[in-house]
Write the structure tokens for this entry.
Amino acid sequence: MSSNVTAVSYGLKLSLPDVQRLRSLLTAAGLAVDAETRTGDGRFEVYTADCVLESGAGADTDARLEELRRSVAGSGVDGVDTALVPAALRTAPRKFLIMDVDSTLIQQEVIELLAAYAGKREEVTAVTEAAMRGELDFAQSLHARVAVLAGLPADVVDAVRAEVRLTDGAAELVAAFKAAGHAVAVVSGGFNQILRPIAEGLGLHYWIANELEIVDGALTGKVIGDVIDRAAKEKYLREWAAAEGIPMEHTVAVGDGANDLDMLGAAGIGIAFNAKPAVQAAADAAVNLPFLDAVRYIAGV
């Protein structure tokens, strides 16, 4: 029994010896390499190899693919990551891309920027990092972090919004998916007041985040409604993909923290973007480049 898989390797530099080593690595892992391409845009380089995976009689193809992913990830070329992607996902007529926001779509953690105005940035940063490593319950940690904002004037939100910067390649990634007719969404444990103008500016199909409560022109230190946690992120992925008529096998999820793990696991391929070690270990693929649009090469867009 066989299935078609595409191996996509990407790094700041890919020399000919690197490519030869990658080809040998794929062959040794049991992948029959067919067509190969090399591309680059001056920022990073990509090697793509169309392969056939021989899973063996009665073997579970998904389990075999997972085994190969771990084998390739553990013995690749320094500075180069390799994603093994089902060819059916890369060639799907419509795909659904969903991304985390803080430290993924944007460069910063918004709660830390807000906390700086309360003189609590270091304290909040420590809690955020622990939550992203999965050491704390996300909802509880969010409530604790937001509580330090109580009493701040609402105009600090505008000041923080002006500080936010998209990750390099984020706009290009969204534009490429949209131009190809795919759907793009973001789901965030951050805040609607910051995300709304970003989502509207990028023309995202779907987006959601938490809502900061503001009363009489000041932050109350609370959020309104249910917290967008890891379970909610998976829920919205499934709901939005279904609304678009796109099967889960053709979805791509990108994130960096423990709050993204359910979403990454549910997607057709889950990609850890400059992520915490535990997230990289659990994801199907990892991007350790500063350019978010490397994701489009993995997805075949």
Summary: The CA atoms of residues 69 and 232 lie 27 Å apart. The first strand starts at residue 2 and ends at 11. The domain at 1-91 is CATH 3.30.70.1150 (Alpha-Beta Plaits).
